[in-house]
Amino acid sequence: MTPTYRVGDELPPLEIPLTRTLIVAGAIASRDYQDVHHDAELAREKGSPDIFMNILTTNGLVGRYITDHFGPNAVLRKVAIRLGAPNYPGDVLRLAGRVTELAGPAGEEPVRATIAVTGDNGIGRHVTGTVIVTLPAPSDERAGA
Question: Computed over its alpha carbons, how large is the radius of gyration of the chain?
């Protein structure tokens, strides 16, 4: 059965080590071939101390954070993020979330949750965003069992 959530509930934090491989692989997987995401020397020439993560990789990690928490039947409906401090190799991204809104059938468990998400690294706030996720209704889970 779907757990009951309340507005204000905090999601457990998730720490993601920011490896050079993660940053480069995320850029390649999202077809972002900008040199600042894979070539440290060229990134330095452009004023960055090292390569840095692209927004599509961050977007994917935020989505992963939500689906890891809510489970495989959760459906991401909207992921809206804004970047701040860059993610460089050797740091750690710490994602946190809080339920800000719930909607669903009257008298039943909610089927849609809005989550405020933040992600910090050693420099500061890397990402701020909102995720809307649809959760399975209790009747949906019984039908699939």
Answer: 17
CB 84 within 8 A of CB 126: yes
Which token pair is 30? 């999202």
Report residue 8 as tokens: 């204000």
For 15-63, how does the pLDDT look when each residue is reduced to its tens digit (9 = 90+)?
999 999 999 999 999 999 999 999 999 999 999 999 999 999 999 999 9
Question: Using an 8 Å Cβ cutoff, are 56 and 66 in contact?
Answer: no
Please, what is the angle between helix 20-29 and helix 55-70, to 10°? 100
Determine the residue type at 107. G
Nearest CA to 29 among 66, 67, 64, 57?
57
Percent of the chain with pLDDT over 70: 88
